[in-house]
């Protein structure tokens, strides 16, 4: 089956949906998503979306907070662009129908999170992402120029070089091969403009608060096609996910600490004042390392997040979803501290783009968590991700429309997916085993605290598994599990290689072999490109 459209958007979070809505008035949009349209990291975001909104705040302060959180590796011009575009992006979301929480006086109830010097976080109670996703999905579904393809997972990008089977410079993206998981058929989606909005890669690690779809698909596909990848060593570990055997790493929002919660040891001792002047409001990388250290030093399985000193009505009103979920697991956060541990949360690296979301493959854009725009640097400031997705969704749309107005060579004919001599697999256990081994290897050797020895060991093991995957991939028909396994193996290798390159500790990357920050040699991006 072959589909053609003016715009191919892969992914259905805030970035992809914002983009689709912007370009839909100018052409037909194919919106591809690997599960249902609302299964995204955006939908799971609890805390909020950051933008300057009060007279006591300023763009300069939001810029400074972002730069400090990013360990001064962020691109200051990109930071300025996103921060100054923030208020307009919020207004656009409100226009689309997002209902942010208001206070008793009718003004928006702005909250504060770790690393922020001011209250500038718009939120919808503690389910902000769910509300944003709801409004965007409703708008997309009502737009006749957008066709939604659910249960479709991208296999690989289609480029001129791939069609010609030779190196072409500059290479041009023509669309993607995409597996219809319901029919089992690999379908061809052709388009002059392709946008990767596939989200992050938390499932590369054993413990994550990401949705199951976060397997680094866009990054892996772009890398295989020849795009530049940057800063993959900067995987953010959210400091506070619920520690419970049946909770599947349920995230406890940064906003809980923003409203006064205190991290304590099992004996009740508050410990963050020993690690940072902002104590419990320190940036996430510092809080995650502090918790990791406390657990190792004291031999505990978790630490405790305590907000019991706040009024019960205040807690229930501000955090109804978190309160209700904790109660399901027998924890009443109004009366007892919440047991928490760190888990992988957000990838600050990704596909390198410019200020419009363009990659170095012609007509290929990357927006949202899949992209490395320069905003986050070595560590993302809380609630800066949703605003980045909204801003770059709009900017990529603007640039895409400009590109379509320019003269360009005709698109070559796209060859259909070739199954060669592939057959049905009778060895699915191999996929499951390799999937588990990669994730355990990454958690144990490429976690919050790293060493060169552990990284080398991890790289060797991942490359061995990749050889097995390559043999398996070409022998059998592709399945969603096999596609995701191939992608997490690729992304795991990219994370390890970037971590080995960066011989310093900065932001989310901490190595015991290079514990100091080295501004002389390493105040720059870590770049990886595929050699052909």
| Largest β-sheet summary | 5 strands, parallel
Mean of all residue-level pLDDT scores: 93
Number of helices: 16
Structural class: alpha/beta
Instruction: Output the strand order for the largest sheet.
Output: 6-3-2-10-17
Number of strands: 19
* Shape estimate: globular
Give an overview of the whole structure:
The protein is 38% helix and 15% strand. With 532 residues, it is of the alpha/beta class. The protein has a five-stranded parallel β-sheet, covered by helices on one side. It has a four-stranded mixed β-sheet with strand order 1-9-8-7. Strands 18-16-11-19 form a four-stranded mixed β-sheet, covered by helices on one side. Helix 1 links the parallel strand 2 and strand 3 (29-32). The radius of gyration is 22 Å and the shape is globular. The chain has helices at 14-23, 41-44, 59-69, 76-96, 128-141, 160-164, 217-225, 254-258, 284-298, 312-318, 320-328, 384-405, 428-445, 452-475, 480-501, 519-522; strands at residues 2-4, 7-10, 29-32, 49-50, 121-122, 146-149, 152-159, 173-180, 185-190, 193-196, 229-230, 235-242, 262-264, 303-306, 338-347, 350-352, 364-366, 371-372, 527-528.
Describe the structure in brief.
By secondary structure, this protein is an alpha/beta fold. The protein is built from 16 helices and 19 strands. The model has no long low-confidence stretch (mean pLDDT 93).
